[in-house]
Design brief:
CATH superfamily of the largest domain: (Glycosyl)asparaginase
Bound molecules: aspartic acid
Mean pLDDT: 89
Number of domains: 2
Number of strands: 14
Structural class: alpha+beta
Oligomer: single chain
Length: 350
C-alpha cells in the first residue's frame, strides 16, 4: 500500500482587532494536494523482448546476456549512488548496451533491406517534460547521446538522417564509420529474412515471424531528487526499408517520462506501439484513471496490445520506486537495481 503524504499550504491570516493586544490567529487551508512519497534511487533497463526461450539459449549465451545487463545496471546505478541525475544514469546504462553487439542498438544493430544500419533513439526528462530524438542515423556512435543533445542543445524534439548526423558532429559527439555497427550475426539475420521473403513473396519484417527478437534497449531512472528520466535506443527492425522509423524515437510511443506518473521504455513491433501510443498510454491511465503503475502497464501490454497481436513489452518506473516490467512475448531481457541490493536480472517469462 502506497503511503501518501498530504501537503497542505496554510495561509496564515493574522488579524488584529482594534483592541490592543487582542490578536486572532486564523489558519486558513488554502490548497491541498496529494503527492506520492518519493521512493529510493532506482534504475530499470531492458534489452528487448521477443521469442526468447530457455530451449533456444545456450548456457554461455545466457551468462553473456546476464553479465551485460548487470554491467549496464551497475554503471547507471553508480551515477545515482554518487548523487547524479536520472538523465546521466540512463545515458550510462544505455551506452553499455549500445556498445555491446548482443543488443539491437548501436553496435549490433539490425540491418535494413539495403544492408545498412539505421539507428533511432529518444530520451525524455520527467522533471521538465523536455524530450529529444534522432532517427535513421548511420554514423553516430551513441544514438542516445545524440537524442540528449537534441533535447538540451536545440529548440527541436526530433532530427533525422543527415541533418541529425550534422548536428551530432557540430555537438562534438563521436562519429564512426558506418561499418562500426556491423556484426556478422545481424547481417546473417538479414540474409535469412531476405531468403524467406524471396521464397514467400512477402515483406517479412511486417508479418509475424515466430523467431523474432526485438533487442532494442532502454532505461529509466529515479534519482535522489525524485526526478525520472527515460530513454530508448535501437536499430529498428531487420529488413526495414523506405526509411521506416519505428516507435523507439517517438515520444509517447517508445519513450515517455513524467515525474508525476512514470517513465516508460518500449520494445516490440513498433508499428503497434506507435498506433497505440504505448508509453504515454500507461502514464495516462495512471494520471486520469488513478491506476497503479503495475495495473496500467498490465492493461496496455497484456490486454490492449495483446488483443491486437502487438507483440513486445515495456519497462517502467514510478516516483515511489515501483518497477513494472511487462511483456506479451516469450521473454524480455530486463532488470532493475535499487537500494535493496545487487542487480536483479531476468530473461524468461518464469
Ligand atoms: N521497437 C523497435 C522498432 O519497432 C524494435 C525493437 O523493439 O527491437 O523499431
Amino acid at each position: 500500500m502506497k503511503k501518501l503524504i498530504y501537503l497542505f499550504s496554510f495561509l496564515i491570516l493574522l488579524s488584529c482587532s482594534g483592541n490592543q493586544g487582542d490578536s486572532t490567529l486564523e489558519a486558513t487551508l488554502s490548497t491541498g494536494q496529494i503527492v506520492e512519497e518519493q521512493g529510493p534511487i532506482t534504475l530499470v533497463i531492458h534489452g528487448g523482448a521477443g521469442t526468447i526461450t530457455r530451449d533456444a539459449m545456450s548456457a554461455d549465451m545466457e551468462s553473456e546476456y546476464r553479465a551485460k545487463l548487470s554491467e549496464s545496471l551497475n554503471a547507471g546505478y553508480q551515477v545515482l549512488e554518487n548523487g547524479g541525475s536520472s538523465l546521466d544514469a540512463i545515458i550510462e546504462a544505455i551506452q553499455v548496451l549500445e556498445e555491446s553487439p548482443l543488443f539491437n542498438a548501436g553496435k549490433g544493430a539490425v540491418f535494413t533491406h539495403e544492408g545498412r544500419n539505421e539507428l533511432d533513439a529518444s530520451i525524455m526528462d520527467g522533471k521538465t517534460g523536455m524530450a529529444g530524438a534522432i532517427a535513421g542515423v548511420s554514423n553516430i556512435k551513441s544514438p542516445i547521446s545524440a537524442a540528449r543533445a537534441v533535447m538540451e542543445n536545440s529548440p527541436h524534439v526530433m532530427m533525422s538522417g543527415q541533418g541529425a548526423e550534422q548536428f551530432a558532429l557540430e555537438q562534438g559527439l563521436e562519429i564512426v564509420e558506418p561499418d562500426y555497427f556491423h556484426t556478422d550475426k545481424r547481417y546473417q539475420q538479414l540474409q535469412d529474412v531476405l531468403e524467406k521473403e524471396n521464397n514467400e513473396g512477402t515483406s517479412a519484417y511486417l508479418y509475424e515471424n515466430p523467431d523474432r527478437k526485438f533487442s532494442t534497449v532502454g532505461a529509466i531512472a529515479l534519482d535522489k531528487d525524485g526526478n525520472i528520466a527515460a530513454g530508448t535506443s535501437t536499430g529498428g527492425m531487420t529488413n526495414k526499408r523506405y526509411g521506416r522509423i519505428g516507435d523507439s524515437p517517438i515520444i509517447g510511443a517508445g519513450t515517455y517520462a513524467d515525474n508525476t506518473t512514470c517513465g516508460v521504455s518500449s520494445t516490440g513491433h513498433g508499428e503497434f506501439f506507435i498506433r497505440n501510443i504505448v508509453a504515454y498510454d500507461i502514464a495516462a491511465l495512471m494520471k486520469y484513471k488513478n491506476m497503479s503503475l503495475n495495473d496500467a502497464a498490465e492493461e496496455v501490454v497484456n490486454n490492449k496490445l495483446a488483443a491486437i497481436n502487438g507483440s513486445g513489452g515495456i519497462v517502467s518506473l514510478d516516483r515511489a520506486g515501483n518497477v513494472a516490467m511487462k511483456f506479451n512475448t516469450e521473454g524480455m531481457y530486463r532488470g532493475y537495481i535499487n537500494e535493496k541490493g545487487s542487480p536483479q536480472v531476468f530473461i524468461y517469462k518464469d
